[in-house]
């Protein structure tokens, strides 16, 4: 079973960020057979993220959210754009992840904003973040401005379909994780002594 994690950093309920995340997930899962989609709304974990930043480790339901993302076969990451970049919730979540947690993970980048002027935030802010995390970003990022939602004249549905298809292809091409070897989980010495 293939798993797709979806991270939405929208602040409101309902949220255009979550709406975009859901549409990207639908486009990706439509191009992949037998996929399970798990969505994480970061606003539900805001306090736990701050705690994890201060203590150095996630706990409770936030820990489960982190494990969902780090164990997934692919990731969709969507944020609203504030001051020409991703919001604080989005950055805090990815700051909490352990080094190497997203190595090689296929990721689709999405963003929302009030105006098309911020559409380059995906390329100048989000792509460098995921390059640093050593994730494998899909070529097409999807930005949705306010005017993209109500008009039939927009190319947003085509961009969503193209990006979802690209992520599905990256996920399908990703090699399976190596099977554990006989020395990957050794028996603790104390347990060996107890067997005598």
Automatic annotation (TrEMBL):
Q: InterPro entries recorded for this chain?
A: CE1759_FMN_reduct, Flavoprotein-like_sf, FMN_Rdtase-like_dom, NAD(P)H-dep_FMN_reductase
Q: Gene3D superfamilies in the record, alphabetically?
A: 3.40.50.360
One MF term from GO for this chain? oxidoreductase activity
Q: Which residues form the NADPH-dependent FMN reductase-like domain?
A: 4-149
- What keywords would UniProt list here? Flavoprotein, FMN, Oxidoreductase
Recorded hits in Pfam families, A to Z, give: FMN_red
Give the NCBIfam families listed for this entry. LLM_duo_CE1759 (TIGR04037)
Q: What is this protein called?
A: NADPH-dependent FMN reductase
Question: What species does this protein belong to?
Answer: Actinomadura darangshiensis
């Amino acid at each position: 079973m293939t798993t797709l994690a979806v991270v939405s950093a929208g602040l409101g309920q309902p949220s255009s960020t979550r709406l975009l995340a859901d549409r990207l997930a639908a486009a990706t899962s439509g191009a992949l057979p037998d996929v399970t989609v798990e969505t994480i709304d970061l606003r539900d974990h805001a306090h736990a993220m701050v705690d994890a930043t201060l203590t150095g480790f996630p706990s409770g339901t936030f820990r489960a959210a982190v494990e969902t993302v780090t164990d997934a076969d692919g990731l969709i990451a969507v944020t609203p754009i504030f001051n020409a970049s991703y919001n604080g919730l989005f950055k805090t979540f990815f700051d909490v992840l352990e080094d190497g947690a997203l190595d090689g993970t296929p990721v689709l980048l999405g963003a929302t904003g009030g105006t098309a002027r911020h559409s380059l935030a995906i390329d100048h802010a989000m792509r460098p973040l995921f390059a640093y995390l050593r994730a494998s970003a899909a070529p097409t990022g999807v930005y949705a401005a306010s005017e993209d939602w109500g008009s039939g004249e927009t190319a947003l549905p085509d961009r969503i379909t193209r990006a979802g298809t690209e992520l599905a292809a990256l996920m399908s091409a990703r090699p399976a994780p190596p099977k554990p070897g006989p020395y990957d989980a050794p028996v603790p010495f104390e347990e060996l002594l107890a067997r005598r």
